[in-house]
């Protein structure tokens, strides 16, 4: 029995050796050396080399076969699709412009949105003071609720997201007189930093400056309603207003959008108010401006912790106020504007996609006999379908590339002209996203024409007139 098995194994190995497989050739050559590894190693190494060479030859042969079967067909289809698109380039120009405009618009908005938010946050008058935090000292249960000092202003300016800190002293309902006209006004002592917190400007004249505060001059800037009540349509500059036996010379009238308190306020230098008017020496009001309306809440918490730690024993008299309803309205407005812009850009891209699909369907109808001839000569259905999809992809890829280039130019222009900060990492990622979106539009717009061309039978297509 063992002799029979050995004969059968020998015959099997001889047959395999004739087939030329390197592995079994190794086994055949090594059949008498299984017990002597020192003589087996060089033979195994030689056969392993032969096997690796045969494997690399087999892999290259497979790649060559795949290329000749699919690569040449795809390259021919690609060349034919490019030739058809180039021939009908005038037909596709409006579609390309629409898709490019939509892609570039979305990329630009994504990249400048943060800078737009920040720029909106700087226009405090328009936002109704959404980035303003008011810090006040009062306690009805204590005759001495505390006050703020210059060191508090310096400490607050070092906090993150704080742009400006302005000390304010004020008194409501004090009598002011010009000749025989007497009205009750609000008197406020401010320095130059106060105007930067409310983004104020003068309709006529100028604002109070640091030199006025340093010299303690008796200059005043009027709210628009006070100027109208005292001087009507006349020129108020250089005129004198008497407040608590102090003559105030008018140097400016505020313009723009003003709050109800600002309209009826007379602004004087901070040092003048603290030295010349009763009960206006202690600073019990600080106005803080943040760099972004999104940071107001966190900055308010940081301000409270800082002042409570530096004014121990006066925590109950501290009031930190911001305006969450204004922030909410601003946030809703900004989000609505962004969504409208995104919607417009998306609709433009969709219109470009629909235009591409419509033109491709028209192209299928025009080339019906051509499609039938191809199928009658042996052209496969999927090759015809792929051709129309590639044509739509070429149009949309070119439009996407043009849109990305326009977006880069637009971002560079906004950075140079308007000073918007551009994150180039985000710009790169959004450009890839825009390019991918154009590819998706090309696939979707080419699907319907490709399916229509695929469903045609050669006989029906050849009879088409």
- Quaternary form: single chain
What distance separates the N and C termini?
81 Å
- Report the principal-axis shape: elongated
**Count of alpha/pi helices:** 17
SSE order in H/E notation?
HHHHHEHEEHEHEHEEHEHEHEHHHHH
Biggest sheet strand line-up = 2-3-8-5-7-6
Number of strands: 10
The percentage of residues in β strands lies in 5-15%
Broad structural category: alpha+beta
Integer-rounded radius of gyration: 41 Å
Helix proportion range: 55-70%
Q: Low-confidence parts, pLDDT < 50 over ≥5 residues? A: 33-41
For the sheet with most strands, the description reads: 6 strands, mixed, barrel
Mean pLDDT: 76
Give a structural overview.
By secondary structure, this protein is of the alpha+beta class. It has three domains: 2-70; 88-118 and 331-462, no CATH class; 131-322, no CATH class. 64% of the residues lie in helices and 15% in strands. The chain has helices at 2-19, 22-29, 37-87, 89-122, 124-127, 150-157, 192-198, 210-215, 224-231, 260-263, 270-276, 296-310, 324-366, 368-376, 381-418, 424-454, 458-462, and strands at 132-137, 162-178, 181-190, 202-205, 219-222, 240-243, 246-254, 265-269, 285-290, 318-321. A hairpin with a 2-residue loop joins strand 2 (162-178) and strand 3. Helix 4 runs antiparallel to helix 13 (324-366) and helix 15 runs antiparallel to helix 16. The chain is elongated, with a radius of gyration of 41 Å. 30% of the residues are buried. Mean pLDDT is 76; it is low at 33-41.
């Amino acid at each position: 029995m063992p002799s029979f098995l050995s004969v059968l194994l020998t015959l099997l190995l001889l047959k395999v050796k004739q087939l030329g497989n390197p592995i079994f050739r190794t086994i055949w050559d090594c059949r008498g050396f299984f017990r002597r590894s020192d003589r087996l190693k060089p033979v195994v190494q030689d056969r392993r080399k032969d096997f690796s060479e045969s494997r690399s030859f087999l892999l290259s042969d497979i790649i060559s076969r795949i290329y000749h079967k699919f690569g040449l067909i795809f390259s021919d289809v690609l060349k034919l699709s490019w030739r058809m698109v180039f021939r009908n380039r005038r037909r596709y120009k409006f579609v390309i412009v629409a898709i490019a405009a939509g892609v570039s618009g979305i990329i630009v908005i994504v990249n400048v949105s943060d800078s737009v938010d920040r720029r909106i946050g700087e226009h405090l008058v328009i936002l109704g003071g959404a980035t303003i935090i008011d810090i006040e000292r009062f306690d009805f249960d204590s005759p001495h609720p505390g006050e703020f000092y210059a060191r508090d202003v310096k400490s607050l300016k070092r906090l993150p997201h704080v742009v400006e800190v302005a000390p304010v002293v004020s008194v409501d309902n004090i009598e002011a007189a010009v000749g025989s006209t007497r009205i009750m006004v609000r008197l406020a002592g401010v320095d130059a930093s106060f105007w930067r917190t409310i983004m104020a400007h003068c309709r006529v004249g100028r604002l109070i400056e640091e030199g006025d505060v340093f010299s303690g001059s008796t200059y005043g800037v009027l709210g628009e309603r006070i100027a109208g009540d005292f001087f009507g349509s006349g020129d108020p500059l250089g005129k004198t207003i008497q407040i608590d036996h102090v003559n105030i010379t008018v140097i400016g009238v505020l313009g723009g959008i003003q709050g109800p308190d600002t309209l009826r306020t007379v602004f004087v230098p901070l040092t003048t108010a603290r030295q010349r008017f009763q009960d206006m020496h202690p600073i019990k009001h600080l106005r803080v401006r943040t760099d972004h309306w999104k940071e107001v809440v966190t900055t308010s918490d940081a301000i409270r912790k800082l002042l409570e730690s530096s004014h121990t024993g006066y925590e109950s008299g501290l009031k930190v106020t911001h305006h969450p309803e204004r922030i909410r309205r601003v946030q809703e407005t900004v989000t609505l504007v962004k969504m409208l812009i995104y919607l417009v850009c998306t609709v433009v891209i969709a219109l470009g996609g629909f235009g591409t699909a419509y033109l491709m369907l028209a192209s299928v109808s025009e080339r019906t006999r051509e499609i039938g001839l191809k199928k009658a000569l042996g052209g496969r259905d999927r090759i015809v379908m792929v051709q129309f999809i590639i044509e739509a992809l070429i149009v949309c890829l070119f439009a996407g590339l043009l849109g990305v280039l326009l977006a880069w130019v637009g971002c560079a222009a906004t950075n140079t002209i308007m000073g918007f900060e551009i994150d180039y990492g985000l710009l790169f990622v959004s450009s890839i996203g825009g390019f991918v979106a154009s590819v998706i539009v090309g696939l979707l717009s080419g699907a319907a024409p490709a399916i229509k061309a695929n469903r045609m039978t050669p006989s029906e297509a050849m009879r088409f007139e």
